[in-house]
Amino acid sequence: MQIKWGIKKIAESLGLKTKKKGKMYDCKETLRHVMMALDGELSADEEKEFLSHINHCSRCLEKYEIERSFKEFLTEKISRHPIPLQLIDQIRTTILGKADR
Questions:
Q1: Secondary structure letter of residue 96 according to DSSP
Q2: What are the residues whose beta carbons fall under 8 Å from the beta carbon of 3, sequence distance 6 or more?
Q3: In terms of residue numbers, what domain contains 62?
Q4: Considering the domain boundaries, does residue 27 fall inside one?
Q5: What is the spatial distance between Cα 62 and Cα 47, in angstroms, rounded to a whole number?
Q6: pLDDT attached to residue 92
Q7: How many domains does one find in the chain?
Q8: 8 A C-beta contact, residue 50 and residue 42
Q9: What is the pLDDT of residue 22?
Q10: Per the domain annotation, does 73 fall within a domain?
Q11: C-alpha angle with apex 41: 36 to 47, nearest 5 degrees?
Q12: Positive or negative, the Cα torsion across 56, 58, 63, 67?
């Protein structure tokens, strides 16, 4: 059986705007929100729209997963080390010394 490729099907396969229940999904807009979503900076409405889009768009979901994995990788590799008080005082003295000039 041959599959019919209409305009809507072609647009969806290219990850362009597709219509779902009267709403337009915009991949460019969704991809702009990926980092905000990962950082928990989306409003409730933005997050709902974002999640709805990535659940229907494999291209955007893939990009979201790549960014999420990369952020996890960085988080695992970065560790915090205490800074010696002597170093803090030394930096403060240097900064204040330059401010007096």
A1: H
A2: 9
A3: 7-100
A4: yes
A5: 17
A6: 93
A7: 1
A8: yes
A9: 43
A10: yes
A11: 80
A12: positive
**2, part of any domain:** no
Nearest to 59 by CA among 38, 89, 34: 34
Long-range (24+ apart) CB contacts under 8 A made by 33-39 are 34/60, 34/63, 34/64, 34/67, 35/67, 37/64, 38/64, 38/67, 38/68, 38/71
Report the 10 Å Cβ neighbour count for 13: 12
In which region does residue 73 sit, left (phi positive, over 0), alpha (psi from -120 to 50) or beta (all else)? Answer: alpha
pTM score, whole prediction: 0.54
Kindly list the averaged pLDDT for each block of 10 residues, start to end, along the chain of length 101.
55 54 66 90 92 89 93 88 93 85 62
What secondary structure letter does DSSP report for 5? -
Kindly list the distances between the CA atom of residue 84 and the CA atoms of 74, 78, 81, 89, in Å, as whole numbers in the listed order.
25, 19, 9, 9
